[in-house]
Amino acid sequence: MEKTWNNKAWFMVLPVLVLVAFSAVIPLMTVVNYSVQDTFGNNEFFWAGTDWFLDVLESDRFWDALTRNLIFSAIILAIEIPLGIVIALNMPKKGIGVPICLVLMALPLLIPWNVVGTIWQVFGRVDIGLLGRTLATLGINYNYVQNPLDAWVTLIIMDVWHWTSLVVLLCYAGLVSIPDAYYQAAKIDGASRWSVFRYIQLPKMKRVLLIAFLLRFMDSFMIYTEPFVVTGGGPGNSTTFLSIDLVKMAIGQFDLGPAAALSIIYFLIILLLSWIFYTVMTTSDAQG
Amino acid sequence: MDFSWMAWTLPTALFFLAIALMLVGMGVWEYVSPGGNPRVGVLRFETTRGDRLFVSLLGSAFIHLAWLGLVGANLWWALALSAIYAIGVFRYV
């Protein structure tokens, strides 16, 4: 079929542009405007220049929260991506097991973030929670309200429980799209299980893994609701991520200028890291 | 229509105007020379001129932040450095 070029088709994109303008561009412009001004409410603003950016860059609070965010995302990716691949590889490809597994995998994804946080907040409590009580009965000193390490472990297990399914479903979609002929050829060649994974399944999953990697990185880097519900950023500031710090600054303290400056820096960091990941993974995909 | 809630200032308006003009300029460039001029530069992967603009703008933002944090609040030198960086990106990336 011959392809026809019609520039009027660009008008079909206009509704999306309008939507993006209202949902992203105008709010972003407003945040930039706020970041260079100070306000005490009543729609009155005073020019502050780059003061808020300097304040953010010089504050330990920002660098500590950023470090926590990076560590959290690195741990999440290191667990969820391999675990998702392993589960997807072991899921049935035919029969009644397929819909059962898919529904079970989809269940955590259907639960709203604040509900997930509440579930784990109760689940981990030493006085009434199943996990907390069980660990206490076993003699393990676990208390996510007082111990920073316990708080981190709880948040990581919660995120793994909530989001590994996404990686599983994406990997599974990649796996079922591989034609049987590939496996038959591998069998004739006497390929080992590892060779089948390395040379057939992994290359076919590369694209979906790229999506899974990016989605999980961006989501974990921007995580807010679940840790806020479970730990509220504590104990101390041990689980205060950038997003939690941002809300404390903007809504708790009503420091809109510094919060806007922090938002822009936060946005730029996510943009940079996502671009690096995307470029590295698409480039290696094109080469290999 | 009242846009006072957006808290506009002249510098931020000029900033967004400059970004908008760049995007219009890129549109005109694409119209005159379609295809995005893809090539493999010093980063060893293919970039179009749109990619190069993105890299220039993102890099410039970090140059300004680094200048602010390490040198001081006078950002004119950071702007000059960003312009040189952008020329370098469009020439070699």
TrEMBL record, chain A:
The keyword Cytoplasm does not apply. Keywords: Membrane, Transmembrane, Transmembrane helix, Transport. It is a multi-pass membrane protein. It is found in: Cell membrane. The chain crosses the membrane at residues 12-36, 70-89, 101-123, 160-183, 208-225, 256-278. Its main location: membrane. It holds the Pfam family BPD_transp_1. This is Carbohydrate ABC transporter membrane protein 1 (CUT1 family). It comes from Sinorhizobium americanum.
TrEMBL record, chain B:
Pfam families: DUF2160. InterPro entries: DUF2160_TM (IPR018678). Keywords: Membrane, Transmembrane, Transmembrane helix. The chain crosses the membrane at residues 12-32, 53-70, 76-92. This is Glycerol-3-phosphate and glycerol transport protein. It comes from Sinorhizobium americanum.
